[in-house]
Amino acid sequence: MSTPVLAHTGLITSRWLRAQFRSPALIAFTLVQPAIWLLLFGQLFKGIVELPGFGTTSYIAFLTPGIVMMTALMSSGWNGTTFITDMERGVMDRMLASPVRRGALMAGQLISNATSTAIQALLVFGIGLAAGARYDGGVVGFLVTVAASVLIGTAFGSLSNAVALLTRQQEALIGISQFVSLPLTFMSSIMIDPKLAPHWVEVAARFNPVDWATVAAREALSADPDWASAGRHGLYLLAFTLVVAYWSTRAFRTYQRSV
C-alpha cells in the first residue's frame, strides 16, 4: 500500500473514530446489546446441553464465541448508514471529488468499525467469563476469536457499504441487512451444533461465513484445538472478506455513474 493511501486511510479512520466518540448513546448501545444477547440466550437455552451428542456441559462457554460473531455481524450490517448520511449531506460527493483514494475511503471506515468490533468482543468475553465460561485455549484462543470477529465485521461492513452505495436508501439497506443477517445467524453454530439441527441447516452452515468464524474461534479456544480445522475456516473467512472488500470499493464507480 503506497504512502498516500496510508495517509488517506489514517485521516478517514480518524474522522470516523471521532464521530463514534461524539455519540455516547451509540457507544453505550453497541456495548450493552451483546451483553443482553449473551445473558438472555445463555439462560433461555441453557438446558440444550442435555441433548445427546451436544458435546459440552457448559452452554455459556459454547455460546460466548458465537455471540461475539453475532455481535460483529449485526453491528456491521448498519455500517452503510454512515455512507448514506454522507450522501444526503453532500459529503460523499466532495470526498470523491478530492484526491482521497477510493480504497482509503472504504478502509478508513472499516478500520473504525473493526476497532468497535474488537472492543465488543472483549466485552462479551468478559461477561462470559463472569457468567462461568472457561476456556483452555488461553491468549492464543482469545486472539483468534477477536481476529475472526474483526474479519466478519469487515466482510459484512463492506457488504453494507456496497449496498448503501448502490441503493442510496436507508430503508433498502436496513431491509437487506435484516434479510441477510438473521438467516446467517440461525443457519450457523452460534447457538447450537448444526449436527443437532435439520440436515439442510447443517449443509448450509458449511457455506456460511459466520459459521466459519464461529468454528475457528471454538477450535482455538478448546483444550485440544484442531488447528487444521481452525486454519481452514480462517482462510475461508479471510478470502471471503478480501473479495467482498474489493467488490465494495468498486461500488464507488457505480455510485459516481448514477449521480
UniProtKB/TrEMBL annotation:
Q: Which InterPro entries match?
A: ABC2_TM (IPR013525), ABC2_TM_bact-type (IPR047817), ABC_2_transport (IPR000412), Nod_factor_ABC_transporter (IPR051784)
> Chief localization class?
membrane
Looking at the record, the residues that make up the ABC transmembrane type-2 domain are 25-255
Transmembrane annotation, as ranges: 25-45, 57-84, 105-133, 139-160, 172-192, 234-252
One matching Pfam family: ABC2_membrane
The family database entries (PANTHER family) matched by this protein are listed as:
NODULATION PROTEIN J
> Into which family does the record put it?
Belongs to the ABC-2 integral membrane protein family.
Name of this protein:
Transport permease protein
